[in-house]
């Protein structure tokens, strides 16, 4: 039975939204689709089972009732890495194959979501190459567009996966480079025997994260405007300058979170005078009452964290980088980009399925 495993060459490339979007598009064309994520990274506990949070969301959106332990059998993060160094689980690939056989029963097409990159999972013999080989799944590379690196990454992936390589989709392409990726880049890939299925443009709404998710990712506490936790943050700015300079800079960017020291009330007030979605105050300092009252009045959540500013900036960058797509509006937006920008008929042809719908 045909299967596609979507992989990337780097973290936080948008795999979850693309996998779910593709699965929904093919489902709407009349195919019975299944889903699996063999190696997860961010486990949550549901129904007394651990499951990758993206896999749990995907199961719900796709209306699947399969066992969570089959959909998301393994996790690789800081905690499990050390555990597996001490004692490796017995035959992980065999377990993944068994779960896959259950999940694929009665399906026309299976979608597998790769791990952080296509090497992740190697210590369990569950890298993308090993999983794809065992399941005879075709490998679709989702590459975050880079002017200098994308060509080499795609060609290297083609060499690495060989006959299992299905082709490439480019993600987060700047609008000014969309024509280039559709034409010259596509022709070059074809001349090298690589299927170029299309491009998805940069979209700030898809790359955004809610205030609540940011607070959770920072282990922070929201102390104002708690009812605004669903507001979307698209970017970060750091407040480590004078008030006048901060005001000038903050005005240039909307829908942002400003990270600054909890004792910098001047910077905090400047940020609140500009289009700011949230303040993250570091060092565990409770803000001045003027700041707190004004933030409450205009509906800007203030998040308190115990970390220093440098550490917090790194954490915010990582949390925004792995922005969640657990939002139906984001999924519908991605589906629109998939319909408009990807050649799904070519994809079906390359995996040997006749198009429907």
Report on the architecture of this protein.
The protein has a six-stranded parallel sheet, with helices on both faces. Strands 12-17-16-15-14 form a five-stranded mixed sheet, sandwiched between helices. A two-stranded parallel ribbon has the order 3-6. The protein is built from 15 helices and 17 strands. With 357 residues, it is α/β, with parallel strands linked by helices. 42% of the residues lie in helices and 21% in strands. The protein folds into two domains: 3-205 and 324-350, Rossmann fold, CATH 3.40.50; 209-321, HprK N-terminal domain-like (Udp-n-acetylmuramoylalanyl-d-glutamate--2,6- Diaminopimelate Ligase, Chain: A, domain 1, 3-Layer(aba) Sandwich). Strand 9, helix 8 and strand 10 form a beta-alpha-beta unit.
Low-confidence stretches: none
Beta-strand fraction estimate: 15-25%
Q: How many domains?
A: 2
Can you identify the CATH class of the largest domain? Alpha Beta
Structural shape:
globular
Strand order across the biggest sheet?
Answer: 2-7-1-8-9-10
Residues in helices, as a percent range: 40-55%
Mean pLDDT, all residues: 92
CATH topology of the largest domain: Rossmann fold
SS-based class: alpha/beta
- How far apart lie the N and C ends? 20 Å
> What is the name of the CATH architecture of the largest domain?
3-Layer(aba) Sandwich
| Secondary structure: number of strands | 17
Mind telling me the C-alpha Rg?
Answer: 22 Å
InterPro entries: DRTGG, P-loop_NTPase, Phos_Acetyltrans/Butyryltrans, Ser_kin/Pase_Hpr-like_N_sf
Protein name: DRTGG domain-containing protein
Pfam families: AAA_26, DRTGG
Organism: Candidatus Anoxymicrobium japonicum
